[in-house]
């Protein structure tokens, strides 16, 4: 959309771009008040071992219940939160809320599963991230081993800095996962230097299983690499039994996706865990 006239460049706004820009400014303004108005809520999606049919963790996924616009997807407002810096207070709220909820579930006698929280780029580069995580753990009383932080490959470009940051986080006793694995430029040669616990195979690879044989080869390679590096694995976006069977065959046992359950409000997730026979049925191969 950049045009040049007389050697000067200027931006040409398509009417749609103008509309989107305008909408985003409104959204950003509303987002400023979303926390205090209690409009943000965490949904939880189970992570299941396809061998045992047991839930071993949940991923916390944020939702914004906007007073007029209804539910807004994180795909839409996380980028706005990132750009405006609002991701810092929002990310802090997510960490606190997720730890508190999991501790409550443990107190209520639910199985001792863990909760995964997504970190954004800006959060990962925030100096006080360590304090924020430590505080969320301390305030909630959650044992750090039940908290997992998800970062993406794009955050690991500065290798030295990533190693320092991850070591500090690991010192708190939390787990680290690489989310959307395979989609970014991860420096494979550095992967083994990062103190990480888990890789999450991106859903784009899972979607194309049994459609594209080259894609299958990639998934097999990621699985075998994870096994060699002794990393735990989760396949994201598992929607069909065929996909689960394929993964099972290559010993990728951690699965997350609509086949098991979509992300659920806390109350419904707790019910699902209590009636976990239904999950065992889905997993029986
Ligand atoms: P993600 O961390 O990779 O989360 C997985 C996304 O895939 C979620 O979308 C989930 O609902 C969706 N999903 C799960 N299983 C399936 C499936 O079987 N099929 C399909 N088609 N989709 C599936 P969601 O909840 O809309 O979140 C989108 C992204 O927004 C997340 O991707 C994450 O990057 C970001 N996000 C969500 N919550 C937070 C948060 O609290 N903080 C930050 N920084 N980012 C968040
Ligand atoms: Mg994630
Ligand atoms: Mg992902
Ligand atoms: Mg994603």
Automatic annotation (TrEMBL):
- On the tree of life, the source organism's domain of life is Bacteria
Domain (EAL) ranges: 24-277
**UniProt protein name:** Diguanylate cyclase (GGDEF)-like protein/PAS domain S-box-containing protein
Q: What species is this protein from?
A: Oikeobacillus pervagus
